Amino acid sequence: MNPFIFGEVVKDADFIDRKAELETIAKDLSDGQKMFLIAPRRYGKTSLILAAAEKLKARGIKVIYLDLFRTASVEQFAAALGKAVVEMRKMGFTEAVNFIKDFISGLRPQFSVNPDGSLSLGVDASPPQKEVFQMIENLLAYPQEFASREKKQVVVLFDEFQEIVSLGGEPLEKLMRAVIQKQRNVGYVFCGSKKTMMSEMVSKKSRAFFGMGPVTHLEKIPSEYFEKYLAGNFAKGGFACSKETLRTIVSSAGGIPYYIQYLAHELWDLQTEEKEITDPDVERAVTMIAKRNTPVYQNLWENLPQTQKRLLQGLAANSGAAIFSGTFMTRFQLKSSSLVKKSLSLLVSKDIIEKEAAGYVFTDHWMGVWVRQNCS
User: Fold this and answer.
1) Helix 74-89 vs helix 164-180: crossing angle, to nearest 10
2) Where exactly does CATH 3.40.50.300 map onto the chain?
3) What is the Cα–Cα distance from 171 to 203, expressed in whole angstroms?
4) What are the phi and psi torsion angles at 216 (to 5°)?
5) CATH for 18-217?
6) Please, are residues 170 and 139 in contact by the beta-carbon 8 Å criterion?
């Protein structure tokens, strides 16, 4: 069986490094700290906070986990928050239904049971925002009430927390801050992947979450940790792979956990007969992955104006380049720095690129490969 996992939460032996971050998060949360974790998508932040959750559960701490990426309205957020509390309490169906009705009856909740026995919850009403906010306030107050009543520690994990901006805007942020800041017995982690949005939430004095707690920016895992992990897993299949090629795998995937696992998975499947993985194999696998996603990338590409296309060509060809330099702008026919700045902003808003410490990068690493191979 192919041992490389991508597209899902990783655990145990597949959870690589992050020991220092894991210990810090678990300790701060158990102390009732409110903290922020910011990292681009596919860096493994969800796996990290869920690993911390498992450590906390082993100590008898109750954990509430909510992924805001799955919520598309403030009403859905209220329902999802109620369901997350139900899951923390491990309530039976009847108790869960009564609990939800007590808190969000105005949303006319709809209940069903999934094949695995878990509760499925939808809403069938959109009352005035003031009423929905009151429901959310009551639900947000519940963890502290439960902790005080049951003499238990509670932690709350919000994943993709930047989505709160589109759900309820600054009024919802202010409501959450007002409730959460009073909860001494409850630890919170606010985890987000859109760095600009999350950074603004915690760094601007006018925003509700300014100064609420420590902010951690998750960095890439050092290459040597992945090289050791890759070598061990390839050896399970009897595959030889030199140190140089292991390094090539990591660098070809941008040093990002999801893409490293993805590329290694493809290499394993390609090596059904040959028992040695080489640099040409890595190049072939990268090309196959990029080609497989051509319909998605081509659709994005065809709907971009020419200036944005030329800028993406430059980013694909020169990762981390000085994009405002005269040499770069001349080579890729970019007329002015103001036009480059505007194009960057638009591409970020379209979620095609994002800004990192070293410069702008493709949000989807394989799209950068595709542009370099097909549009240059």
Assistant:
1) 50
2) 18-217
3) 17
4) -115, 125
5) 3.40.50.300
6) no
